[in-house]
Amino acid sequence: MKADDLSQIRLGFDSHRGPSAPRRGLSLLYGGVLMVLLGLMDGCVTEHSGGTQMSSDPDAALDKRGALARQYIGVGDWENAKRNLELAQEVDPNNARVFEAFALVYQSTSEFEMAENQFRAALKAEPTVSRARNKYEAFLYSQGRLIEAEREFYRVTEDTLYSGRPMALVNLGLCRLQLEDNPGAKAAFARALSMDRRIPVALLELGFLRLEAGDTNEAARYHGTYRTVSPQQSPRGLLLSLEIADQTGDQDALGSYELALRNLYPGSAEYRVWMERQSR
């Protein structure tokens, strides 16, 4: 899986027990449920004992139920995932990671109201933890609630201790693109690159923004850096290649990139957009 395809978020359970219409499609979001890899194991799931008596240690029991839930989520077995999460909740009724996992299960089964309730419960249990807020904002984004999502994304990016901050800034930038706030999007992508200069999405989107602003040379510079970190271009990367070649009049590059987009990604939205543009 290429770095510009998805942002990986690991879904786990802490042993710590808590107290008693857009220009770009929504599928661009990075770091949320639409683009989350749960880091889960595929394959069969084996349970060795029933009930909550898996261990005399409550934290160990919580971890084991969490691990089983993750495995069931990984194979799309939502009912058994929920059963194990319910058992985990018997051990710790206020564990934020259990709430998060429930939210992701309900989102996967299109039970959106229940998913939001679980996200809110996670944030209430751990209001200062950006991990849960990052997943919640992705949920808001996937529901088209862009203004709320932008506000939550911004809150996450201000958490200087959050390890996922660079990708949260990318998410913020993508959300601002949806809201047609190009200056705000540019600022978010630039901040992301100041923390990690090898984020393909930020490089690509800054390339598109510079191209839209008429700065073809700067767009080409961002695209060149993108190519060094992502040698096999995504459909969006090839679209930027085509648009730069079109602007510069490089017919050889134009033909080569169009052929690559048609052969590698014939069913992509980018290919359809490009061909529709050529037919006008």
Question: Your description of this structure?
Answer:
Strands 1-2 form a two-stranded parallel ribbon. It has 280 residues and is mostly helical. It contains 13 helices and 2 strands. The longest helix is centred in the first third of the chain and has 17 residues, at 58-74. The protein is elongated, with a radius of gyration of 21 Å. 42% of the residues are buried. Helix 7 packs antiparallel against helix 8, helix 8 (182-195) runs antiparallel to helix 9 (200-212) and helix 11 packs antiparallel against helix 12.
Spatial extent as radius of gyration: 21 Å
Please give the order of strands in the largest beta sheet.
Answer: 1-2
Low-pLDDT residue spans: 1-44, 48-54
- Percentage of residues in strands: under 5%
Q: How would you classify the helix and strand content by structural class?
A: mainly alpha
Question: Any idea what the shape is?
Answer: elongated
Q: Largest beta sheet, briefly? A: 2 strands, parallel
Average pLDDT number: 83
User: DSSP helix count?
Assistant: 13
Secondary-structure element pattern, one letter each: EEHHHHHHHHHHHHH
Number of strands: 2
How helical, in percent, are the residues? 55-70%
- Alpha-carbon distance between the termini? 35 Å
